[in-house]
Amino acid sequence: MGKLYTNSSDFNRKYHFYNSEKLSFGDFYFNFNPVTWWMLKNNGINILGPDPKDFEFDIQPQQLVSYVLKNMNAYWANRIKTAENSINDLVAMPTNQIDYEIEWTVLGLLRQFFTLKEYDIVSKLDAGEYGLTQIPYEWHSIIEEAMNIRKGIKASIFRSDWERIDKTIRFSKYLITHCNKMIEKNLT
User: Fold this and answer.
1) Cα-Cα-Cα-Cα dihedral of 157, 103, 98, 65, to 10°?
2) Same-domain check for residues 24 and 67
């Protein structure tokens, strides 16, 4: 493989891709984005052929930051707004679904926070550990809750599901606002 890139004329082509333990042929796979290219360029492992660091494609930190911030302000902000408007429905969900939502949201946003600050990508648990060193103490309980869920620890730190959901929503809004201010400050 000498070059690895996609021209805009290739965006509508069908090709093979592997996802969810299944080899498929079809439309453009949604997960080719700056995070994918960053991971390949900076963390790719050579099995056969040239080192991924030598591939002829360019991914700059600003492309990664721009993509992550856009995702945070679109997907995550909308998800949090929906959760905030339907908190009673969320509380009525089974505990395992609430656990999933807390883990997905808290650790997912912390991964983005890490990427915006460090220009790198880490696991959910590593993002949680990082958050505990960077985020104000008032949010540590929901970060620890999300990490416990990820680790399979069933005992909750909170007294009720409502309290966990409320703290997740408030933390998410805080972190999105914090990240936007952080990026804005870096631009000035």
Assistant:
1) 130
2) no
H or E segment to which residue 111 belongs: helix 95-118
C-alpha closest to that of 116 among 185, 60, 183, 43: 183
Q: Phi, psi at residue 147, to the nearest 5°?
A: -65, -40
pLDDT digits (tens, 9 = 90+) for 175-185: 999 999 999 99
For the segment 26-55, the average pLDDT, to the nearest whole number, is: 71
**The residue to which tokens 């302000």 are assigned:** 73
- Within a domain: residue 2? no
| Residue 35 pLDDT | 79
pLDDT at residue 13 tops 80: no
Q: Tokens 């656990």, residue?
A: 99
> DSSP secondary-structure letter at 76?
I
Counting the structural domains of the chain, the total is 2
Residues 173 and 135 in one domain: yes
Both 36 and 95 in a single domain? no
If asked whether residues 136 and 183 sit together in one domain, one would say yes
91-104 confidence digits (pLDDT tens): 999 999 999 999 99
Residue 93, number of CB atoms within 10 A of its CB: 14
Same domain? 69 vs 40: no
| Environment class of 129 (CB within 10 Å of its CB; exposed 0-12, middle 13-18, buried 19+) | middle
Residue 80's domain spans which residues? Answer: 61-187
